[in-house]
Specification:
Blueprint lengths: L2 H15 L6 E6 L5 E3 L2 E3 L2 E5 L2 E7 L10 E9 L14 H15 L4 H16 L13 H13 L8 E5 L7 E3 L9 H20 L1
Antiparallel strand pairs: 1-4, 1-6, 2-3, 4-5, 5-8, 6-7, 7-8
Length: 205
């Protein structure tokens, strides 16, 4: 088999490898965070995704976690075309509002503003239930409206992921730089196996 045939068949093996890309990740939180507001940690939280250092933003107030723990999570693109059935909110617009608030958190060093944005994210996930935890700010409705206006005005993100826990332990996070975008080792194993087979055939010829 000539080299040109190897080159022609290479895309076939690349395409065959693509479905092996992860739709589940392993999330680890190391216990670090930006600040504390009224006894609650304000993001971003530090940790890793599939062993790669990452920073997360919590969009799930009702589930509690501890530092130095981990869990498996379903991965959903924040602007997913396949739906939000594996997420807690089941609603892409809600996550876009949260994403806008996260961009505001990322764009300021003011800890008070960061806390207000974080509490508004929790407000969007819980609504009036949040009042029972004594939110220290009165800005939830205001920032939620600003987030809604931004989404209606066309705000969007690319490459962000929602990490939803599988099982009873864990919190749902938004990951601005998703580890899910990196192919799992199975992708490379499949590709390598195909190349080895092609090289073996060429030598027999």
């Amino acid at each position: 088999m000539h080299l040109k045939w190897l080159l022609l068949l290479l895309p076939i093996f690349l395409c065959a490898a693509l479905p092996a890309k992860a739709d589940q990740d392993y999330v680890w939180v190391n216990g670090s965070y930006s600040s504390v507001s009224n006894g609650f940690a304000i993001g971003p939280y530090g940790g890793s995704v599939n062993g790669s250092p990452s920073q997360f933003y919590c969009v799930d107030f009702k589930d509690q976690i501890s530092g130095n723990t981990g869990w498996s999570a379903n991965v959903t693109g924040l602007t997913s075309s396949s739906g939000y059935g594996q997420t807690l909110e089941k609603n892409g617009t809600s996550y876009l509002k949260m994403a806008w608030l996260i961009t505001q958190m990322m764009g300021t060093s003011n800890k008070t503003l960061q806390a207000q944005y974080q509490w508004t994210i929790w407000y969007l996930s819980l609504g009036s239930i949040l009042n029972s935890v004594d939110n220290p700010y009165g800005t939830d409705a205001y920032w939620a409206q600003q987030a809604g206006n931004a989404v209606q005005g066309g705000f969007s993100v690319s490459g962000w992921a929602i990490l939803t826990p599988i099982g009873s332990y864990g919190q749902e996070f938004i990951l601005p730089s998703p580890g899910a975008a990196t192919p799992e080792p199975a992708t490379f194993v499949l590709l390598s196996a195909g190349l080895v087979a092609l090289l073996a055939l060429s030598r027999k010829k």
